Automatic annotation (TrEMBL):
Species per Swiss-Prot/TrEMBL record: Bacillus suaedaesalsae
Name this protein carries in UniProt: Chromate transporter
Residue stretches spanning the membrane: 82-110, 116-137, 149-180, 200-221, 271-291, 298-316, 328-348, 378-395
Keyword line: Cell membrane, Membrane, Transmembrane, Transmembrane helix
Subcellular compartments: Cell membrane
Pfam families membership: Chromate_transp
Membrane topology: Multi-pass membrane protein
Chief location: membrane
Family in the record: Belongs to the chromate ion transporter (CHR) (TC 2.A.51) family.
């Protein structure tokens, strides 16, 4: 808890220093990040109590976007209001953004199109995304009804690949979930106190949905690369449940077929992202820099994280009411299930078909998947192993 004699500036500075330390040292992906946050914010600094932290994590797992980054934003809000949330995000995110933007400039000096280790990174992507989707499917589609919604989303988005297909499927799934689960019994949850006005929250929610609908329209009306880039990253950030690993297929579908970036450069950057601390969504900084220099890197970073801000600021003041409203919770259950189907669709096209070319590729993918799922090895170990196996397969 903050003390009375602390000024607003000193509180913001304290938030920035603490979150920056976490941004420099938090390796291991979103689940590991939540552990780091708990140790720093709950146990050591006591900025938030155990029950409130658990409630905040539940909210951020419920919403689309980068869960660990959203938890960091939420803790910043409880400590220093809206500015505290922004400062907390900057501290946690900036170190990896800077590293990945520098890496993008370095990579531009090398020809990577025919490297065996690059193909190994493609197979790493198959294993990592498959692992993430399996875990998410177990959590978000536990019953036959939600499995059916996921199948519906898979079929539609695979056969109808447009800028509007994902949004359309999400809206239909929300409606189906509303009717199927409006009488679903959920336990009462611990209230969470957040200092954000409901009027500001409504503006954020309206902006989130408004951009989700209007950006694809603007993209088709105005032929400008910046609008197209912003739309691709915003939509990817707005529709991802389950953390940074599962944003990969959505981003690749948005960027590679459109000619923004080559498949080799895309997956090389993804491999590098596994090796740096901080949120995996900072992969956008690398992609934007490759596509359009440092300006593109900043634009992509802002676009992919903007939905996270709008959702956290928008839902926090209403969360206590919403999560105990069975009808609204049922709609979100439908949305969660649809996202599983959308990600499986994107996993097949283009991730799988551009990476698994023969029996050796499949064997490598099986080994890497086992390393993640059964042996519980760190992602960076899988990345290194995949690169080495890809290189060795190239020499055969």
């Amino acid at each position: 808890m903050k003390t009375r004699n602390q000024s607003s500036m000193s509180i913001l500075w304290e938030i920035f220093l603490t979150s920056s330390k976490l941004g420099l040292t938090s390796f291991g992906g979103p689940i590991a990040h939540l552990g780091y946050f708990h140790d720093e914010y709950v146990r050591r600094r006591k900025w938030i109590d155990e029950k409130s932290y658990a409630d905040l994590v539940a909210l951020c797992q419920f919403l689309p976007g980068p869960a660990s980054s959203q938890v960091g934003i939420g803790i910043g809000v409880t400590r220093g209001g809206v500015l505290g949330g922004i400062v907390s995000f900057i501290g946690f995110t900036f170190p990896s953004v800077l590293v990945l933007m520098i890496f993008a400039y370095i990579l531009a000096s090398f020809d990577i199109s025919t490297s065996g280790w690059i193909h190994g990174l493609k197979i790493v992507a198959v294993a990592i995304v498959a692992h993430a989707i399996v875990g998410m499917a177990q959590k978000l589609t536990p019953d036959t009804k939600r499995k059916t919604i996921a199948l519906f989303a898979l079929l539609i988005t695979l056969l109808w690949q447009t800028a509007f297909s994902q949004v359309t499927v999400i809206l239909i799934a929300a409606l189906i979930g509303y009717f199927l689960y409006k009488n679903n019994k959920e336990e009462e949850h611990v209230p969470l106190h957040i200092p954000i006005s409901k009027s500001f929250a409504i503006i954020c929610i309206s902006l989130f949905f408004g951009l989700l609908v209007l950006l694809p329209i603007l993209r088709n009306v105005i032929d400008h690369s910046s609008i197209a880039l912003f739309d691709s990253f915003y939509r990817s950030g707005a529709l991802v449940f389950g953390g940074g690993h599962v944003v990969l297929p959505l981003l690749e579908r948005e960027l590679v077929p459109q000619g923004f970036i080559s498949s080799e450069a895309f997956l090389t950057g993804y491999g590098m992202t596994q090796a740096v601390p901080g949120p995996l969504f900072t992969f956008a900084a690398y992609l934007g820099t490759v596509i359009s220099g440092w300006q593109g890197g900043l634009l992509a970073t802002i676009a992919i994280f903007l939905p996270a801000f709008l959702l956290v600021f928008g839902f926090l003041p209403f969360w206590n009411t919403l999560r105990n409203n069975r009808s609204i919770y049922g709609a979100w259950m439908g949305v969660n299930a649809a996202v599983v189907g959308i990600l499986i669709s994107a996993f097949y096209q283009p991730i799988w078909i551009s990476s698994i070319m023969n029996e050796i590729d499949f064997v490598i993918a099986a080994i890497l998947f086992s390393m993640l799922s059964y042996w519980k090895l760190s992602p960076w170990v899988v990345v290194v192993t995949g690169s080495v196996l890809g290189f060795l397969a190239y020499l055969l």
